[in-house]
Amino acid sequence: RKEVEQDPGPFNVPEGATVAFNCTYSNSASQSFFWYRQDCRKEPKLLMSVYSSGNEDGRFTAQLNRASQYISLLIRDSKLSDSATYLCVVNPVGNTDKLIFGTGTRLQVFP
Amino acid sequence: GAVVSQHPSRVICKSGTSVKIECRSLDFQATTMFWYRQFPKKSLMLMATSNEGSKATYEQGVEKDKFLINHASLTLSTLTVTSAHPEDSSFYICSAEPTTKSYGYTFGSGTRLTVV
User: For A52-100, how does the pLDDT look when each residue is reduced to its tens digit (9 = 90+)?
Assistant: First the structure.
């Protein structure tokens, strides 16, 4: 089983739609979780950290379910500029600096 | 703040030659930097953890003699791909985390290596 798994997509949605991505992780003791955004042929950029209580940043909402070992990202009112690959990233316990990346979920927002 | 500069952004080299990639933290000090490799439509895979003033820690399956890492200062880590082969062609990305841990992990802009 992969350490971090994501549906690769692509998710094709119209502008204004709400879209949700899920991610599962295998190490139940993992401590830190993030969502990164990666544009084509570019480096990943931190979108938001994921906190146990869930957190929101504008149109983006991240949630963590430790019991089921999954993380979600909800994007409301999708914009064309949201088109990118969204990477689920986990920081395993025991190594505070190491990141494990999911393969990413491709989102394409169309007019 | 928390800018990581990576150079070069793109390089084409002949088989058998060596290529050096630089990763610099511009406005913070990084005792630890990370080198990743990404194949097309694949996830980033950690290759090694670069530690300032000591030997790098390589992930399983990564040849340390082929991918030489030097972290001589708190702002610079280099990755040298030695005796490059076409299968080494990939997107290499470095990252660093400020000690303040307030910006998350910052990535360099990546280096696209093509070995011909």
Answer: 888 999 999 999 999 999 999 999 999 999 999 999 999 876 555 678 8
Structure tokens at A68: 């089921």
CB atoms within 10 A of CB A15: 12
Please tell me the number of Cα atoms within 13 Å of B110 on its side-chain side: 20
Identity of the residue numbered A88? C
Under an 8 A CB cutoff, do A97 and B93 touch? Answer: no
H-assigned helices in chain B: none
Contact criterion met (CB below 8 Å) for B20 and B78: yes
Contact call for A98 and B32, based on CB within 8 A: no
Contacts of B105 in chain A (CB under 8 A): 34, 46, 99
pLDDT tens across B60-82, in order? Answer: 999 999 999 998 888 999 999 99
pLDDT of residue A2: 79
Q: Are the C-beta atoms of B29 and B106 separated by less than 8 Å?
A: no
What is the C-alpha to C-alpha distance for residues B67 and B78, in angstroms, rounded to an integer? Answer: 10
Cβ-defined contacts of B42-50 (< 8 Å, 24+):
B42/A103, B43/A4, B43/A87, B43/A101, B43/A102, B43/A103, B43/A104, B44/A44, B44/A87, B44/A101, B44/B93, B45/A101, B46/A98, B46/A99, B46/A100, B47/B79, B47/B92, B48/B79, B49/A97, B49/A98, B50/B77, B50/B79
